Amino acid sequence: MGRVGLGLAVGCAVVASGIAVVAVWRRVRSRRGWARAVAVLKEFEEGCATPVSRLRQVVDAMAVEMHAGLASDGGSKLRMLLTFVDALPNGNEKGTYYALHLGGANFRVLKVELGGTRSTIMKHHDEYQIIPQDLVASTIEGLFDFLAMTLKRLVEKDDEGSGQSDDTIKELGFTFPFPLKQLSISSGTLVKWTKEFAIEDANGKDVAQCLHEALIKSGLEMQVAALVNDTVGTLALGHYEDEDTVAAVIIGTGTNACYVERTDAIIKCQGLLTNSDEMVINMEWGNFWSSHLPRTPYDFDLDDESPNQYDQGFEKMISGMYLGDIVRRVLLRMSQQSDIFGESAHHLSTPFILSTPLMASMHEDSTPDLKVAERILLDELKLPNVSLKARRLVVRVCDVVTQRAARLAAAGIVGILKKIGRDGSGGVASGRVRGKPKRTVVAIEGALYVSYSSFREYLHEAVAEILGEEVAPNVVLRVTEDGSGVGAALLAASHSLQR
């Protein structure tokens, strides 16, 4: 072989060797990157762990905070608001009642006809209306005048369709899902607006009185018989359908709970005249906090970057507003530690780019090779060519977030049962009848619970684990649909009947 040939051979060998070294180096780097991504997941799993022992600590903390909130205003992170609802629908209600549910960008009107037989709603009609954007930040008078005129038009239209004209004063249940200081069953002052509302002259005003004045101005003979939030409405409908219902929970975009409390246990309202020995308490449990909650650095970061920092700590760990973004934050950390998402991972820096419904779709993807997850990662997070192995890692992150949220929500529910003696931990005082636990029903509403089967299954599993095999079969978690509407009308009916 000549010198030139020998040189070429040596050169080729060097190049081939270099290529091999680069390939080996890339494989090593890839394996190291994957190991770092897995390490992020393992660390997150450990931080989110919710063994039964920890859940029982959350149960105890919830019960303690409930006691403190009932003792004094400001005594607890739980506001434990009086609702003045001291009688729940019992099935004897008769007549026609209306409900007005003020939501975010819309409101709706319902007409409910009751026949006096439990669980029989003779007619249920509702209609949605959009609130003009300019009224969301105008004046309280302008907003309520619009509500009253729209309500009048719908009522008159309904009367014409029935061929009847009714001039009697109609009873209205008003669902107002904003923080209120309740003054009576039919009155309450606004503490602050949430969502997109920003009407400055409304704070401190009695919203039921404002609506009443607007109704008078419109010429509609209707009065507010019950002013409630959506959680209390869910409890009312749940009790109407099943008299063993003692609490209600909403787990959707946001979360809250209410329950029936003995009036002698409400220390902060001793001496208050009521018509019974019980009252519904609106917990505002989204603000619950305890050192026993498994908080991770991702939760701290989410709270630091939220407009309501240090508030709604429980809600930020269990509600649909936040779960998808917790997943996004974990995936972002993985992308910073590895290259498993490629060069487009910067899109993960966008807050709330991953909604909870999309997270749920990836989590419950049953297609071969996780094609649904692949599509969502591409279309929503702009991550192309994510490997099957990486997609499985994403699904696992979704599972960890969902499982923690559901199990914490379960602990909150059992905390309520513990407070009212329905958790089986204290003999007769624990809701036992002749040695057997009482049947207890919790009404639940909200898309996260109703529509997300994995979340629901994790929650049921945790409730059973905490309560134990003797008590758990006597606790029923029951889906209750449209308490915010029908429940408000039922409360108007029950308190009209009471009067």
Automatic annotation (TrEMBL):
Catalyzed reaction equations:
D-glucose + ATP = D-glucose 6-phosphate + ADP + H(+); a D-hexose + ATP = a D-hexose 6-phosphate + ADP + H(+); D-fructose + ATP = D-fructose 6-phosphate + ADP + H(+)
The organism's superkingdom is given as Eukaryota
Q: Which InterPro entries match?
A: ATPase_NBD, Hexokinase, Hexokinase_C, Hexokinase_N
Where exactly are the transmembrane stretches of this chain?
6-25
Q: CDD domains, alphabetically? A: ASKHA_NBD_HK_plant
Q: Name one GO molecular function term.
A: glucokinase activity
PROSITE patterns linked to this entry = HEXOKINASE_2
Gene Ontology CC: cytosol; mitochondrion
What are the EC numbers? 2.7.1.-
Q: Where is the Hexokinase N-terminal domain?
A: 41-240
What keywords are assigned to this protein?
A: ATP-binding, Glycolysis, Kinase, Membrane, Nucleotide-binding, Transferase, Transmembrane, Transmembrane helix
Task: Name a Pfam family for this protein.
Answer: Hexokinase_1
Cite the Gene3D superfamilies for this sequence: 3.30.420.40, 3.40.367.20
| Biological processes per GO annotation | glycolytic process; intracellular glucose homeostasis; response to glucose
Q: Does the keyword Amino-acid biosynthesis apply?
A: no
Where the record annotates domain Hexokinase C-terminal, the positions are 247-493
Q: In which pathway does it act?
A: Carbohydrate metabolism; hexose metabolism; Carbohydrate degradation; glycolysis; D-glyceraldehyde 3-phosphate and glycerone phosphate from D-glucose: step 1/4
Family according to the record = Belongs to the hexokinase family.
- Protein name, per record: Phosphotransferase
